[in-house]
Amino acid sequence: MMHNDPAFEVIMRHLNLNEEAAHVWVDYIAKFTYGESAPIYDLLHDINNLENLDRALTTVVTALEPSTMTGAAHNRLNMRISFGAHLENISGQRLDTLDESILKYIEIDGKAAHGSLRALEENIANIRTAIRLTKRDIEQSKSSVKGISRINLDGVQLVNSARDVWKLSTGKTAPARGLNPASPFGKFLYDLFEAFEIPGDAKSAFTAWVKHVHTSG
Fold this sequence. Notes:
Layout: H1 5-15, H2 19-35, E1 41-42, H3 43-63, H4 71-83, H5 87-90, H6 100-140, E2 144-145, H7 153-170, H8 184-195, H9 202-212
Parallel strand pairs: 1-2
């Protein structure tokens, strides 16, 4: 994101910084607000998709078992994985006579595809355990919400980054429970919301940050 002039002015005015430092903090806030996901889970959506992932992985691994297809089908699949669409073009040819693009496919893409399937089969238990533990983490986390669309996620991220900048620039800890819009930090946060054109109310976003992010786990 390019330097936001209103945000630059807010940083300069509230934190009494030189231009170089102000630009650093504007970039930091912009990157954190727009480039990072808020650490908030969408409980039902995330759990549902993790369960879908678990089922899909199980389906894939089961489908690769020898008993699910004829030996001929397995062999053909392995050949297609190795050679892809080039299979028809290499029948009866020596490797040293093949086109460079075909050799590259066999050496890089084909081997990578085979390796991916082997890795999935060998690590499916660990992956499913990770899915199960992630579901548990989400279900137990105070950062899990039903209906995440009601939360101003960009606003929550701006609260997070503004608190960091305030602490690092002033040496003072920003409030962690209630936001007084008339306080120095409150004015700073409200001005940042306006400068970065974040929709919604800064105090509401701060309240969501306290509820779902502060000391979250």
